[in-house]
Amino acid sequence: MSDESMSGGQMPLTGAQQTTLGQPVELPLDGWLYGYTVSPECGVCKALDRQFAEAEKHKDHRAMYQAAAEIRNHPHDGKQK
Ligand SMILES: [Zn+2]
Fold first, then answer.
1. Which residue in 36, 29, 28, 25 sits closest to 62, CA to CA?
2. Distance in angstroms (rounded) separating the CA atoms of residues 55 and 62
């Protein structure tokens, strides 16, 4: 079994990329893979949102997924106004 369904090659990632989460990446739900919520007051999330948009322009689905995952995994204080 291989989970390397995405195109090969290694690209340098911006910032700290954490792959220690035990979340499966093989879910057939694109909405889940690429879905995220940006906190308007979080500069990091907004920057990642821009990365996602750039990746989308280039049809770089892996970068899209990575940006979305980073946003989802970005820790906040849980303060949602
Ligand atoms: Zn954030």
1. 25
2. 8
For residue 34, being part of any structural domain is answered with no
Q: Which domain covers residue 45, as residue numbers?
A: 40-73
Quick check: 34 and 64 in contact, CB under 8 A?
Answer: yes
CA of 81 to the centre of ligand 1 (A): 14
* Token couple for 22: 């035990």
Residue 52 in contact with residue 66, Cβ under 8 Å? no
Residue 64 falls within a domain, yes or no? yes
Measured in Å, residue 50 CA sits from the centre of ligand 1 at 13
- pLDDT (0 to 100) of residue 76: 87
Per-residue pLDDT reduced to its tens digit, 7-66: 555 655 555 555 555 555 555 556 667 889 999 899 999 999 999 999 999 999 999 999
69: closest CA among 8, 15, 3, 9? 15
